[in-house]
Amino acid sequence: MAEAVMGPLLGRLQELALSEVKKLVAVDDDIRSLHDKLMWMQAFLRDAGPRRRLQNNEIIRVYVRQIRDAVFDAEDAVDQYFLRVDISMLHRYSDVIIKFFTNCTTQVTVRHTLSSKIKSINTRLDGIIANKEKYIMDDEAAKTINPWKPSTIISAIAEKLDEDLEIPLVGRDDQLENLKNKLIKTTKNTTPMVISVVGKSGVGKTMLVKDMYERVPIKSHFDVQAWVSFAPNLSASNIQRLILLRLTGDACPKEELERKLSGELKEKSYLLVIDGEVSSTEWKYFLANLPTDNAKSRVVRITHTKPEDAQVRGFGHDKIELEHFDEDTTKRLFLETLFMEDRSERHNNGLISSSAAAAKDERRVKEAKKYAKLVFRVTAGLPLAVVLLSGLLRTKEYPGEWKKVFEHLKLRSKESKRLDIILSMCFDDLPHDLKSCFLYFAALPLNTLVRARTLVCMWMAEGFLRPIEGKTMEKVGENYLKELIDRRLVILPPVENAAPGDEKITVQTKVLEFLLIEAQEANFVEIHSGDDVPSLSTARRLSLQNHRDKYAALAKTLPKLRSILSNFEKEEPGNEGETKKEDKLTNAEPNSCLPGRKGNNTHHKPKDLIRKLLQVSEFLRVICLDGLEVGDELPSEIGNVLHLQYLGITSCSLQKISPSIGKLKRLQTLDVRGTKVSTLPQEFWKIQTLRHVFGSLNMPTKRVGKLEQLQTLMTVKPADVWDENYLDNMKLLRALYLRELTDQTMLSLRSVSRLKYLLILSISREKILGELFTSIKLPRLQVMVLKGELMEATPTKSPNSNLPNLTKLSLEGTKVSQGFINRLGNMPCLATLTLYQNSCRETHLVFSEGFQSLKNLTLDSDLEHIEIEGPAFPHIAVLEVFTRRGKKFCMVIKGRNDDIVKKIKIQEDKRDSIEFNYKDVPFM
To answer: Where in the chain is the domain with CATH 1.10.10.10?
Structure first.
């Protein structure tokens, strides 16, 4: 994979050519020679990737491997040079510098060392090129193979990340009804039921269950619901922990898991969805510890495994099996996924007249139907293959490029693995710069949701992104994500009220399997998920996925490491290992950090392993440790990894960050969400490269440095030094989350109007300035979240003039008036409005007119009476109402057709008895 190998290095070589090293003419010439050779080799590698999948040519594999190893050595030499220069510049008279010079490692020596290494690599590359000409020239068989050529640009139709464009569920009506009956009907069974939804990967099992899980009749039928997704072969106790975390939001010690989970579920009707492959032993152990006292309870298992292999007494068992589609259903799915953006455009913006849209649809559908039979032929009716193919064609012009796509597929349609063919084509079609970004999903465990903004920040730190045409790296990364979603390679599950960047994304199982093969071929990432730990001395990226022993791989020496990632659920400190009972089930040695030494009682403390990592892995650029205990304090050795650009220590008991973090002069992102870190050392706030800071933090009592690149500040409590000039050092802020403001700092918030690029503003305080809506102008603001009483001021202007681009508004405890709600109706772009508890002063609310762009309205408040009149909400898609226990509720809809009723979701907290009163429309 050319970009994963070459991309970051070419950028570093350009940086090197502009540095002090150019003072040595010979070095400068060697660098330019190396840069030119790598560019030619990059072109070869770009062509070799697709050919490798079409032709099993071992000579090509050897050549690619040799190039990759030489490139890695070059990267090591360049990084070593920059690291030594950075060390020399830390403190002019510090002990580090004295040691630096006493070891005779002066700047000149470092340059000469680099020169020697680059000359050696150039000579090595000359030999590789000579061998290519000797062994690969005039390969006639290769000339007959025509690999798919990648796109050169990003497509122009990618949707916004927050666009609600779920893949439609097509052709599963019978299975949906069957699943509904098995979930709700209890006339025959006297025990809880396990319902296994079975089928090959890609047939739509998760989509089917998700559709039913979110429906109002299901939500109102069960007392307790939880959905957990995880990577294969998770232990029973970890599944229990996940469920308890979903139900309570709290981590739990292992010895209390069974008791606490039983307490949450006992004597209640529960619905548990288990989305992940589990061994038969662990599955039986898991079910055996669930309460069976309520026959209405259900456990839905999404699996490839036959349910007969893991039945447990105390539960009834049933299954729903999904197969491939027939030709007609395949055609329906293809057409619906192909033209989703047309429906969205009409529904969301109303920019196309119905007649013009109908004519446009009719013409395009007629053209697409010509290929319907061929779609079935090349996909064999597998829903995932159909969706991926439609995603590819959405980026192509009709008819010329469509014809090329199908001609390429027809040539390979006789091969058995049709989904792999389509996946290869979708991957090869990606623009070159996008492939490394997509390959990064291989480092994430199966069924893992990752925040879009987190992923983009890691791409930046890896060197995969660079500013293009005046766009920031973040904007380029967002566009890349849009492209991957638009191509259906990345899944964007719908998330209520997610701010831009907070959306969570993932990839489908078969897509991940394909990426893992590509990542292995490119030596992109090492994954530790089993009991054995391979040699990691040359690993450049490491993904920790072993739930049984999270720290085993850290016992290894990792001198070449650039990135380390983990994604575990938060647990109580001191419970990093599995219980003895579970270890006996699998004959595993508990808490062994030295695999292969049975009975060895020598264990490493996690904080010691982290300290060793920071001491040895000096080239680290990305540390993303989620759910991994590192101790109460991040070791001072964090100051050793001077090239670190992304530091994420989340979901653990960390309390303090060492002041040595101030040495990280390249740091772009810090994420300490889910920890106990409340303050950061003053040295941290002097890092001028900071772009994103995430956590629940107190701002320092002293002024911060010039943070001119800072874009995200989440979630902070301003100190008293925060005055009207405080934000002048953060003029590029795009997202600002504030909490617990004092009266003084609240008044200084008027200066927020100076933040011309601000997109997201969140404020949590007992009383909030009403001027946010009346006199403070934020022309680019898209999302506003307010928690606290809004002190309404007499409006001098309509909110639509101060907040012309506001699309999402969430209110909680604001106690606004009916007049305020009426003024919101005039905002031209408001698409999502959420009213939580105590958001309104009155219990009777009328929506009489306006809200012309509103698509999603959520009412989770103490409202007792709602009236909706004809002119309001012309483009509403979802109207969701959460009711309160013991309160009567009435909704009146006037002068509207039945269409709005179909979009209303009435949900009950505990299935309370509620009265409904619909006028002019029937009750659903």
So the answer is: 430-524
The Cα–Cα gap between 824 and 833 comes to 9
Cα 621 to chain centroid, rounded: 19
Give 676-734 as a 3 state SS string: CCCECCCCHHHCCCCCEEEEEEECCCCCCCCCCCCCEEEEEECCCCCCCCHHHHHCCCC
First vs last C-alpha separation in the chain: 54
Backbone angles phi, psi at 12, to 5 degrees: -65, -35
Rounded distance between C-alpha atoms, residue 124 and residue 637, angstroms:
36
CATH architecture of structural domain 173-321: 3-Layer(aba) Sandwich (3.40)
C-beta separation of 755 from 733 below 8 A: yes
Pairing of strands 298-303, 193-198: parallel
The amino acid that residue 231 corresponds to is A
Distance CA 218, CA 271 (A): 9
Count CB atoms within 10 A of the CB of residue 430.
23
CATH 3.40.50.300 boundaries in the chain: 173-321
Give the residue, 269 or 256, on which the prediction is more confident. Answer: 269
Residue 445 to residue 759: CA distance in whole angstroms = 31
SS3 869: coil
Cα separations in angstroms, 587 against 241, 581, 582, 584, 639: 22, 10, 8, 5, 40
What are residue 377's phi and psi, to 5 degrees?
-65, -45
Identify the CA nearest to 241 among candidates 515, 467, 579: 579
- Helix or strand or coil: residue 911? coil
Among the ranges 322-331, 354-363, 528-537, 841-850, which has the highest mean pLDDT value? 322-331
| pLDDT tens sequence across 583-642 | 433 333 334 443 333 434 446 788 899 999 999 999 999 999 999 999 999 999 999 999
d(CA 730, CA 715): 15
**CA quadruple 541, 546, 550, 556: dihedral sign:** negative
Cα Dmax for the chain: 89
CATH of domain 430-524: 1.10.10.10
